[in-house]
Amino acid sequence: MQHKAPHRMLKYYPLLLMLTFMTCVSAQSYKITYHRSYNDKVAPDQDPVLVFTNSQQTVITTQDISQSLAPYPYETFYVDRQKNGYYKLTNFSASKELATFDTLLLNRNQITFTEETKTILGYVCKKATTSVNSNSIELWYTTALGVKGAPNELGQQIGLVLEYVRNGNSKITAVRVEKVKQIPSHIALRPFEEIVDGLTYQDELSKSRFTQVPIFQNERINFSEHTTSDSILRFANGTVIVKKVKIPDIKAGSQAFVQLVEKSNGDAYDRTGSVFLIAQDQAQSFLDGMRNGMNTLPMYSNGDGTAYPGMVRTHGYSPIYELMRFFTPFGVSHFNNRLTLKGKTWQDSVIYRQDISEFLSVMAGQEVYIGTYIGNYDKGGHIVSLEMTIHPGSSKMDFPKIRSLFNTTNVMEMGGQTYARFFGQEKGLEMSFELPEDARDVQLRYITTGHGGWGQGDEFVPKENSIYLDGELAFKFTPWRTDCGSYRLYNPVSGNFQNGLSSSDLSRSNWCPGTVTTPNYISLGTLKAGKHTIRVHIPQGAPEGSSFSFWNVSGALLYN
């Protein structure tokens, strides 16, 4: 919803703007062309900045905008010298524009004047300095032309800025100054269709620069007898939600992010969570098992006496892609009033955000199933909102190919999918896959977290992960997080110990309550077409009474 500017004088702006335009015809006008450079190297293939200025107004635009060649959205900056204020105008399309007006920015920065001079395009310029967000700024300006202006909002009141220098190496420099009869009518200040407050304007502009794909909005993930609706599928007693989502066509070089907002709705514990994508590249998918029973999916067994459904790729079946592994904190939001600590203010939710651009090759322009899992046994459970954002980029590189290999996170825990305890066997996880053609720049996108929540369980004991490709060790490391105490303010009901620590402070096997576990990208080089074998070995700890350890690992192959 857009709000009209509150000041009553706004209704007279069109008339005042028209009068301004009429009076500017007789004023001497100039057109200044600027080039951008870095370390004195002029940026190639740039769209030059253009400044049109006279005693009445200044317009900052670009060559492409002035010639109607710029892609939407684009922004133009106008200084109204009579009002000592400025307008920002964004054109979102040929039929939609939005403007805002302010008087503050022109005088906001403290400027220091010096006597240092240099000549630019034959004009003697003096140096002024200021600082913006810890960036040192030099403004080289001249008063010889009797007009004011600059290639951006800084220095608009001091003269005609012919060079802007940021931190000594990034420059916007005038390369041509021309007299013009008047500022062209299609560029000059004019009445605008709608003027809104600055916050509304900035929000609209920001959102126009990327695509939002909403998935879930304030959905509950809990342990109950939820039934499936037409729009949202619920499985495993409500602990898994899935939605069919249309992903738009996406240009090469774009980036995609998933963002999940989570808060407790009654569950006080740290829980494993996963945002996942159903792989649909083979005849059978994980969704088939969710609908028909997990025992209908291929089983994995390594000799420990248990069969594990749906975790490993086989001929004809692909496990889920894990987009993001996250862990809920101890009761954020719902339990914020249970414990008050001096100097601590609990957060009202957790935001998890992660780059998932490598999955765009299997999502762009398609309808896909995206789901979220939080393992819990609480009727209140958790409230989540999930969206994907897609951001255009300048790169022309194609998205890598990707295929799902394994995912041992038992997202269907309450639907018959058991914990991955098979790393207790020397074989660990071993599976084969086949490449139809030679692959280069191959990477294994690998996420791993250890679990077993007593003192000697693998949650609290560092364990080395070893990855073997075709029988040879490709990579090994010990996944371990020592920064969990940084997230104390997300954990209002984390258990507190006699030694002054909280449970959420404790180091863990690659996860902390209230955080994302980031993937490892393991280089596998170039692989020939044909069959290959991957083995994951982890020295999983032995059970102790009814307590046991397990490992959630997921792997997807990226290649060109």
TrEMBL record:
List the SUPFAM superfamilies hit by this protein, alphabetically: PHM/PNGase F
Looking up InterPro entries in the UniProt record yields: Cu2_ascorb_mOase-like_C, PHM/PNGase_F_dom_sf, PngaseF_C, PngaseF_N, PngaseF_N_sf
Q: Does the keyword Disulfide bond apply?
A: yes
Report keywords, A-Z: Disulfide bond
Q: Which Pfam families match?
A: N-glycanase_C, N-glycanase_N, PNGase_F-II_N
Mind telling me which SMART domains this protein's record contains? N-glycanase_N (SM01290)
Query: Where do the Peptide-N-glycosidase F N-terminal domain residues begin and end?
Result: 212-390
Stated name of the protein: PNGase F N-terminal domain-containing protein
What is the protein's species of origin?
A: Sphingobacterium suaedae
